[in-house]
Write a structure and sequence with these properties.
Distance between the termini: 42 Å
CATH topology of the largest domain: Glutaredoxin
Radius of gyration: 23 Å
Largest sheet: 4 strands, mixed
InterPro entries: Thioredoxin-like_sf (IPR036249), Thioredoxin_domain (IPR013766)
CATH superfamily of the largest domain: Glutaredoxin
Structural class: mainly alpha
CATH architecture of the largest domain: 3-Layer(aba) Sandwich
Helix content: 55-70%
Mean pLDDT: 90
Strand content: 5-15%
Pfam families: Thioredoxin_7
Low-confidence stretches: 1-28
Number of strands: 4
Protein name: Thioredoxin family protein
Keywords: Signal
Number of helices: 24
Shape: globular
Amino acid sequence: MCIPASFRRAMLAFTLILLTPVLARAADGEPPTTIADALKQAARQHRPVLVDFSAVWCYSCYYMASHVLTGPEWNAVKRKAIVVESDADSPDAQLWMKKLNISFLPSYVVLDANGNELGRIAAEQPRDKFYARINAILAHGDTLQDFEKRATQGSINDVANALEAYQARNDGTAGLSWFASLPAATQQNARKQARVTLALDQLVLLKAAAANDDPAVIRNAQKVLAQNIGCQRPYVLDDLLDASAKLSEAKRKALLAPQRASLDNYVNTRVLIPTPACADQRSAVLTSADVDKVLGDSAAEKAVLGRAIALTRQHLGNNLASDRNQADNLRVYLARAGRKDELDAVQRELIAAYPNDYVYAYRYGRSLLDAGNPADALPYLNKAADKAYGANRLAVTLQQVRALKALHKDAEAKRLASDVLTANGPWYPKQAAALKAALQS
């Protein structure tokens, strides 16, 4: 799909207003700063483009940056492909994420020089799994269309590949519809494979969740959880927790109690160990704490959070800059455990450890504001504003306006909001509307 030239010019003008420093057009040999630049390089150099969709607030992105996108394997990938980092909060990234139906951060999408997808990897991955997959995509391309074509020719492995690709696109309806279009014999043979059965059940769950059909989510989440789903267990349990929220306390406990043993085993053997087998430690810990809370076991809830905090502190030592994923996990565990004094201290340390982005100054400033301390919050919010851009800039400004109004500085709040809204132009209408509403409150 072509992007109209007028839209590209508007997008570029907006980016130049909000991004610091001003980004120059990348030349060959220089890292590209936009996907368009990367595609131009790809056409000249006859190499594919690997787009790294991430965000400064994305803890899973921190994990990939620190633990996976490093070393000789990553250097080899960069020799094979033109790598471009695309910030999910920028107009360029949001345009492409909509075009490519990106539902997860981080996401890694390989494109040819015409912008056609050759394959993707969604969410954080263990190192060995990531490189096996990305190198396969770069070697021969693993597009959804390729999977579908080979599946129609009888490849059961590619039936599973196609279904999992639909899952990565968060599109249960389309995936199930495609499977239903296969010859009956192919469907019958495919259903004999555990991988296909699991993928189909997960697509049914996705479809139910998209339709907000809580009873169907509950039925299908239980069905998925009864299978060997590895590192996806916390995410499916989160679906079950959300879908059961309106049930009576007794019914909800009866629903979740049978899941506890497998979840505890997952946390104890794959997550809260010195070398975790699953990349997303945070989701496992928080889901475990949430299940304990629903079951009324406050001691277990406190214990799993305490273990996570202790293990994370041990990993970090006294250096929060040594592993941003773990450092951000520590912040979240302390918040979930209600350990406010420790949390405040860690938030201040995070601001010092990562001074070149807005996110920690913003979070700490907002926490102070929510606690009723606008005068203390404002300097941190102002610091965040100096680093924020795009959708982030509107979010920070909203909190600055709240703080200024609480301090009875309404005129200053109006000037600040007007300046930012003017620079924002037509972009991010929801965030802009929230900012305008805050001025009227």
